[in-house]
Write a structure and sequence with these properties.
CATH architecture: 3-Layer(aba) Sandwich
Order of helices and strands: HHEEEHHEEEHEHHEHEHEHEHHHE
Strand content: 15-25%
Number of helices: 13
Structural class: alpha/beta
Largest sheet: 10 strands, mixed
Radius of gyration: 19 Å
Number of strands: 12
Number of domains: 1
């Protein structure tokens, strides 16, 4: 869903400015910061650029290619048109021979401009996004581009061996592949952050702020966020300053001695209360209860596991079912359909809270945390009031 739809449509959280009038900033103040209150209910002050980086690292003598999508504050040329994703972006040619791509011929439009210049200004905070099991790096492009409009560089790598193309070629979910991916994903996150801090593509050294970064992800990617932020674990990266796991699996992580109880950085959990894939009460609510402070929880009503992605409008479940991919259709339909909250509304809620959270902890904008308190900023017919326990 493009950001201009958010600008045109009625705000899901329309009570924010009335309830928190002092937090409704004039747009000319720029991105959120110590002296700027930026309302996260609306897109930020920047146009958004997007580029694809072909990164690679060598681990234990093996080269690992990390195709990484990066959204960033940008200055588009006059007359530039929005970028689109096509079938060839979603899956490889080999996978496309098995499953007919559901991507429409005209592509999927995002409100971002391909390979345009980076905006000038102070160094931008880095945030890394980790996709779900059998996902794709741009699976949540509405959310990632929204963050970029607020002054973030957002990097999302494909996790080799655990992409949508891999899922198709494997013929469905493969537990052994998931185990391998669990051991590789933390390194993918750390390596992408390191390469960007050193300077990659248009992001020259000094483009990004202070060596710290935020981390978020969906499903398996959300669990990856916990692993990378857990001190003492094999995947730990001390540079992570805040995490925002979306629809995570936390129960197994905790049982294995990893996850929420170990994380020592601010944590925002976002979950779907009708999640059939990863039970909300067990994983999101349970993960919140075992997490350290500061911690926050948003429970979106009438949403399912894939409500947080761009998958539902594509009806990928039907394509998987037609191709006979075992177990995929039932999973991919979780959150899709007329009986679930429209993905547009889920995108509004998620973008708002994730932006406010990172503004507070990566942009040092304490006023941003006012958007994370319970009250009229969270309509009860959309999401439960945000639980928070922010005292140190």
């Amino acid at each position: 869903m493009p950001l201009d739809a958010l600008r045109r449509g009625p705000a899901i959280l329309a009570g924010a400015c009335l309830a928190l009038a002092a937090a409704c900033a004039p747009p000319e103040c720029g991105p959120a910061g110590p002296t700027c209150d930026r309302n996260p209910d609306a897109p930020g002050p920047y146009a958004v650029g997007v580029t694809t980086l072909e990164l690679s690292v060598t681990r234990t003598g093996v080269v690992r290619k990390l195709v990484t999508e990066v959204w960033y504050p940008a200055v588009p040329a006059r007359g530039a048109t929005h970028d689109r994703y096509y079938s060839a972006d979603l899956v490889t040619a080999e996978a496309a021979a098995i499953v007919v791509s559901p991507v429409p011929e005209e592509g999927m439009e995002q409100e971002a401009f391909r390979d345009v210049p980076l905006a000038k200004g102070t160094p931008f905070p880095l945030v890394v996004f980790s996709h779900g099991n059998g996902g794709v790096r741009f699976q949540s492009y509405t959310l990632t581009s929204y963050l970029a409009s607020h002054g973030y560089v957002v990097a999302a790598p494909d996790h080799p061996g655990d992409t949508l193309s891999d899922l198709i070629l494997q013929g469905g979910l493969d537990p052994s592949a998931m185990v391998r991916s669990a051991s590789e994903r933390p390194g993918d996150v750390r390596d992408v952050a390191t390469l960007l801090f050193r300077g990659a593509g248009p992001f020259t050294e000094g483009t990004l702020r202070d060596g710290r970064y935020g981390l978020f992800g969906h499903s398996f990617g959300a669990s990856t966020s916990f692993i990378v932020a857990s001190p003492g674990g094999l995947g730990y990266d001390a540079r992570v300053a805040a995490i925002a796991p979306i629809a995570p699996e936390t129960d197994t992580l905790t049982a294995l001695g990893d996850g929420p109880p170990l994380v020592q950085v601010p944590t925002l959990l976002v979950g779907a209360q009708r999640d059939r894939t990863l039970d909300y009460a067990q994983n999101c609510r349970g993960g919140y209860d075992s997490a350290n402070r500061p911690r926050y929880l948003v429970g979106v009503k009438n949403a399912g596991h894939f409500s947080f992605t761009e998958i539902c409008p594509l009806n990928l479940a039907a394509s998987a079912d037609a191709a006979g991919i075992r177990g995929a259709a039932k999973v991919l339909s979780d959150g899709c359909g007329a009986d679930f909250l429209p993905s547009r509304q889920v995108a509004q809620v998620t973008s708002r809270f994730v932006t406010a959270f990172f503004n507070g902890y990566l942009r040092e904008a304490p006023s941003a945390l006012a958007y994370l308190v319970p009250g009229p900023t969270t309509p009860q017919d959309v999401a439960d009031a945000v639980d928070q326990d922010a005292d140190p």
